[in-house]
Specification:
The chain has 326 residues and is α+β, with helices and mostly antiparallel strands. Among the domains are: 50 residues, Uridine Diphospho-n-acetylenolpyruvylglucosamine Reductase, domain 2 (2-Layer Sandwich), CATH 3.30.43; 102 residues, CO dehydrogenase flavoprotein, C-terminal domain (Enolase-like, domain 1). Helices cover 29% and strands 21% of the residues. It contains 13 helices and twelve strands. The strands form three sheets. A five-stranded antiparallel beta sheet has the order 4-5-8-6-7. Strands 9-10-11-12 form a four-stranded antiparallel beta sheet, sandwiched between helices. Strands 1-3-2 form a three-stranded parallel beta sheet, with helices on one face. Helix 5 packs antiparallel against helix 9, helix 11 packs antiparallel against helix 12 and helix 12 packs antiparallel against helix 13. The radius of gyration is 19 Å and the shape is globular. GO terms for molecular function: FAD binding; oxidoreductase activity. InterPro entries: CO_DH_flav_C, CO_DH_flav_C_dom_sf, Diverse_Substr_Oxidored, FAD-bd_PCMH, FAD-bd_PCMH-like_sf, FAD-bd_PCMH_sub1, FAD-bd_PCMH_sub2, Mopterin_DH_FAD-bd. It holds the Pfam family FAD_binding_5.
Length: 326
């Protein structure tokens, strides 16, 4: 680990000043500290923001939910409003990591976490995300766990967050605070596809701080859930996952929100699946036909072709779990 300075701030003004000067924000530290140990990350200054007042889960005036950036994963998963309104979020959080990590890691830190690509974490390997212009060893290396959607010739790493998949499905908004004031970014535009600049992963400006993630109001009743498929039952990242939220009225699907994880360079919204569902009555045939569209546009690599079929099967299974059949 390389030497670094450490400062703890007590208010957002102080935090923004330190961030503007190049400091890296840290709260739970469950990802950044690991990367520093491996010398993948080498920040000169850490700015401890764990004392900031961003720890509340509150209902919004329009019937949505706002989750503070410093709410711990375990707290968010167990919160009565989260569990009642959006079980897909609770389930995604509870399937994310060990209890110890969930007690430390924050919502803001979770969506900011960096890829688990082994080449990114191996400082001797070529990685455009870690060292722009060096190449991507995963393209022709062992790429079983890598992306089949949203990849580029510069990067094929997947985004590791589970709850980010739920946020993408629910079309959340990220509230940011920076030197130029507050702004809101749709979740779909917050996490960036790699393109030719895979080292730029979020739509953050210099010194900006995540304040909260807001889930918009959805029509009731809303049934939702999260399914994660992995190589082992616990403490493993997703090969594929599916976040599904359905609003049914009069036996007809009025609204559908579906996103996938483990297969994309960012949490992957599935609009073709959603479109196929809306206006239809639940049935085994509907789930299968909609899920068949989940891998539209997939570009599998040498070792992860199995993800194409696995993604469709995962989405179909979760549609059946959430939506049931008549």
């Amino acid at each position: 680990m390389h030497p670094f300075a450490y400062t703890r701030v007590s208010d957002t003004r102080e935090a923004l000043g330190a961030g503007r000067r190049g400091g890296r924000y840290i709260a739970g530290g469950t990802t950044l500290v690991d990367l520093m140990r491996e010398t993948v990350e080498r920040p000169e200054t850490l700015v401890d923001i764990s004392g900031l007042p961003l720890r509340e889960v509150t209902a919004t005036e329009r019937g949505g939910l706002r989750i503070g950036a410093l709410v711990r994963m375990a707290e968010a998963a167990a919160h009565p409003k989260v569990r009642a309104l959006y079980p897909v979020i609770s389930q995604a959080l509870e399937l994310s990591a060990s209890a110890q990590l969930r007690n430390m890691a924050t919502i803001g830190g979770n969506i900011m976490q960096r890829t688990r690509c082994t080449y990114f974490r191996d400082v001797t390997a070529d990685c455009n995300k870690r060292e722009p212009g060096s190449g991507c060893a995963a393209l022709h290396g062992h790429n079983r766990s890598h992306a089949i959607l949203g990849a580029s010739d510069h990067c094929v790493a997947t985004h590791p967050s589970d709850v980010a998949v739920a946020f993408a499905a629910l079309e959340a908004t990220v509230h940011l605070l920076g030197p130029d004031g507050e702004r809101r970014v749709p979740f779909a535009g917050f996490l960036l596809r790699p393109g030719s600049t895979p080292n730029r992963e979020q739509a953050l400006q210099t010194g900006e701080l995540i304040q909260a993630v807001e889930i918009p109001a959805h029509p009731r009743p809303l049934k939702s859930g999260y399914l994660k498929v992995r190589d082992r039952q616990s403490y493993e990242f997703a090969l594929t996952s599916a976040a599904v939220a359905l609003h049914l009225r009069g036996g007809v699907i009025r609204e559908a929100r579906v996103a996938a994880g483990g297969v994309g360079t960012v949490p992957w919204k599935l609009p073709a699946v959603e479109k196929h569902l809306v206006g239809e009555r639940p049935s085994e045939a509907l789930w299968a036909a909609a899920a068949a569209k989940a891998a539209d546009g997939a570009r599998p690599l040498q070792h992860n072709r199995f993800k194409v079929d696995l993604l469709s099967r995962t989405v179909e299974r979760q549609l059946r779990i959430v939506g049931g059949t008549r």
